[in-house]
Amino acid sequence: MIKHLTRFKSGLLGILFLASIASQSVHAAEAPWWDKQWPLRKNITIDTSDKGVAISDAIGGAALLIKLHDGTFDFASAKEDGSDLRFVADDGKTVLKHHIEKWDTLLNEGYVWVRVPEIKPSGATALWLYYGNQGEVKNAGDAKGTYDADTALVYHFADMATVAADSSASGLALQNAMPPVAGSLAAGGQRLLGQTAVTIPEGPASEWLAGSALTWSAWLKPATLAPNAVVFSRRDETNALIIGLDSGVPFVEFNGKRSASGAAVSVGVWHHLALVAKEGKMTVFLDGASYGTLDAALPALKSPSLIGKDSVPGAAGFVGEFDELQVARTARSEGFLKLAAVNQGTGSNAAKLVVLGNDEASGHSGGGEIMKHLSLFTDISKSLTFDGWVVIVLCVLLAVVGWAVAIKKFLYLNKISKSNDAFLERWENVSSDLTVLDMEDENTIKTLGGTASGKAQKMMRHSPLYHIYHLGSEEVQKRVQNVRQISLSSTQKFTKGLSGRSIQAIKATLHGGMVREVQKLNGNLVFLTIGIAGGPYLGLLGTVIGVMITFAVIAKSGQVEVNSIAPGIAGALLATVAGLAVAIPALFAYSYLASRIKDVVSGIETFIDEFIAKMAEHHKESN
Predict the structure, then answer these.
(1) In sequence order, what are the beta bridge partners of 89?
(2) What are the residues facing 65 on neighbouring strands?
(3) Co-location of 296 and 351 in the same domain
């Protein structure tokens, strides 16, 4: 038993340790409410300091990806299409442009892009997400306004309706786009098989000028690491620019010259690949860090661009998933690329960089520590799985039954305590002169020789001592009467007292009566012991199942971040809290009631000994 309890405590402490790490968050200072028609808001902090994700290089403005799920956002309070979402700068006045890439109220999942005009390096940038307006509001989504004037092309590959759409102001639609892959990096993506290419047609938005600045970026998840696999190519009669993976090594190639190589990427892992061209140099960035360079200026190209394949016969194409292609007519800074690589990625740093705070209601005034804790429990309960709710319902049933038994037993013990006191007060008078009980009238026994009135007699009915007294008196009367009847017989002569054997028989009868009284006193206390023993284990079962489901969902989605782990673990721990909330009060109640019952039983045993002694002395057996 001790071994099992030690394992239980160790497991519980381990889960609590995980929860304490996962539940750390950044709380923003109070800010004026933007519009009272929006009853809910949530603070969003972009932390580029050492406490978040350290980015010391200049970033400037950027389109930030906000990932929402049921652990960080209350989808039930927002409109089904997310049209009530508004993003407001920290000044509480400036509404920021945004657009929704994916909004799924069935899976409680949302991907929203927000234009943040300026993101501070080595510091914190705050903004607010407002929602919950159930009135007639227009959808404020503006994909073209989300990106700056330097952004030429943006392809999300989100769903069948927008798989070929350009989200930038250019509006240059893709050709030969494949059906999107559900659950890609962010919403949908493209699965490239290396056989056919997705085409970006020629047009003013896709035209490159000789020697101009350019930033090309995309997310890759290779399925194989083939030699010279082409991810992106663009050719005309004199110039050819290729971006690809050579056995997993990223490269940029211009007219046969390649950039310096480095470590290969891994199969089945998302990587952010970028090319920055400026001042006669092309630099390859991998996951936000400089990877390799090529001394060549950007060529003048107007031809169509190919994704996943080159136009040269026999060239190897890229095999894997492809998502979030962006092209800009400027050289993005290293800080900008690192922000994009972390923010849009699936690593744990994404949650450290963009921290979503707790919900606040309009007119929020804090409400004291108790209200804050209640609000936290309300938020945590939203992350409970069905299994967790089943465990909590069972714990509630145990608690209700346990408290009902405890309260009923407490009232019962109070009642018999008063009854015992009333009986003992009258017994003290009667025990000094038991001759008042020698009458053969049964009413004499019930009224203790006439000392108990109707009201007192009614009260004493609940007294275990009175029950024992009544049972013993009847046994004594039967034996005394039998002795008297037999003594009148002409054949034999018997004494009028009680023999030693009769005393033992009466004592055995009284102990039998005491056992029945003890059973009555202990009745239903088993429900309290069930709550004490079963509550923690039932709660631990719910917690283990909840943690198991949380990690299974994380493994399936690939999003390893604090905001995806913390709500699930916190919700799972709520089951343990429920189990302990059943066991702890039940333990206190059981200890108190057991102590009082022990006192009552001791009183009964003492009374039996006194009753037997006085009856044996009063009805002495003569020689």
Answers:
(1) 127
(2) 113
(3) no
Average of per-residue pLDDT across 446-463: 73
Predicted confidence (pLDDT) per residue in 510-544, tens digit = 889 899 989 988 888 888 999 999 889 998 998 88
- Judged against a pLDDT cut of 80, whether residue 384 lies above it is answered with no
Nearest of 123, 204, 199 to residue 171 by alpha carbon: 204
Same domain, 539 and 522: yes
The count of structural domains within the chain is: 3
Please work out, in degrees rounded to the nearest 5, the angle formed at the alpha carbon of residue 216 by the alpha carbons of 215 and 221.
Answer: 145
Same domain, yes or no, for 420 and 464?
yes
Kindly report the pTM of this predicted structure.
Answer: 0.59
Residue 482 Cα distances to 179, 390, 477, 497, angstroms = 103, 64, 8, 11
Beta strands in 105-254 (DSSP E): 109-119, 124-131, 151-155, 190-193, 198-200, 214-222, 229-235, 240-246, 249-254
Condensed to tens digits (0 to 9), the pLDDT of residues 107-161 reads 889 999 999 999 999 999 999 999 999 888 888 999 999 999 999 999 999 988 8
Terminal C-alpha separation, the chain: 60
Q: Are 155 and 282 in contact (CB under 8 A)?
A: no
Measured in whole angstroms, the distance separating CA 330 from the mean position of its chain's CA atoms is 44
In a domain, 167, yes or no: no
The string of pLDDT tens digits covering residues 239-273 is 999 999 999 999 999 999 999 999 999 999 999 99
* Distance of alpha carbon 316 from alpha carbon 378, whole angstroms: 54
Which residues are within 8 A (CB) of 52 and not within 5 positions of it... i.e. 6 or more apart? 26, 45, 46, 124, 352, 353, 355
Strands 214-222 and 319-328: antiparallel
User: Residue 574 burial (CB < 10 Å; 0-12/13-18/19+)?
Assistant: buried
